[in-house]
Amino acid sequence: MRLRHALPAAAAVGFVAFALVGQPAPATAPKMTAAAKAFLGTLTPDQQKAANLPFDSKARLAWFFTPQQTKERQPNRVGVRLETMTPAQKAAALDLLKTGLSADGFKQATTIMSLEGILADLEGAKGAMVRNPGWYFVTVFGEPGTAGAWGWRFEGHHMSVNYTLDKGAVVSATPLMFGANPAEVKAGDRKGLRTLPAIEDHARALIKSLTPDQDKVAKQPTPKGVEGWEIKENSPTADVGAPKGVAADKLDAAQQKALAALLRAYTDRMPADLAAAEADRAAKTPPGAMHFAYTGSAEVGQPYTYRVYAPEFVVEFLNVQADSAKNPANHIHSAWRRLPGDFAASR
What we know:
By secondary structure, the chain is of the alpha+beta class. The protein has eight helices and twelve strands.
């Protein structure tokens, strides 16, 4: 089976010796370099101190998609946040984000940010967490250029975009996490909006297509709470354990097509050149080495999770929590991770 436009399949110990898309370096890497330099150039000296950290900073590997705030309800992520930027600075920050995402991926990212406004309306000023579309942060690690290693991050609630570059080439595009609360807007002017529909629709179609024998292998015991299948943030390793579920070579042609479409929904978040390279590597994954597993129920409104395992990557998804209006199973977490580690680093 050849899975087109699928996920990363080439993790390495230490920095990989090649770009994600091979040699010569693709257009994305120089675009990122130029955009990062331009962004830093718009900042004041104080902002630059906050936004530009050393490449070896521990903060580079400390990524979070959950809300982060102090007891005094102040933001405490590293970097410079959007709401403190001038219009020109914010435009430069978003230009940097655009270099790491496709047009559709960028639309998803900005929609995720906008959902904070819906949460603010639903939860009110007395909500436990501050909900603010301006609480998204940009950080550049190291010096953007072609001489050595550097990286950048765009992060806030339900989004963490992380890239690592070395010698003018993209060497890691993970971790890349998108979430949505609500997964589907149930009321108001934006009723019916689904920020990340494809990662649910293709997965549900695949689950519902499984035969009883396939389902016995694919379906896993539902963990207590979300801890058993939750995406591990603040870590350069996913630590998902051994592969579980049904192997891709045990799926029929239509099911394999659904699995390929599901993987494509993740890689299509990336720029085309990087997504194409990821697809090529995933296509080389032996079908018997790729597994699909899930928990719960694929029926709308019922909690469920799924994973796609391969030797060098894992896709993780959860929809087990109610949204802020108490609609059940309407709160998505999704990510892809490199194995054995993200950030082009060893364990």
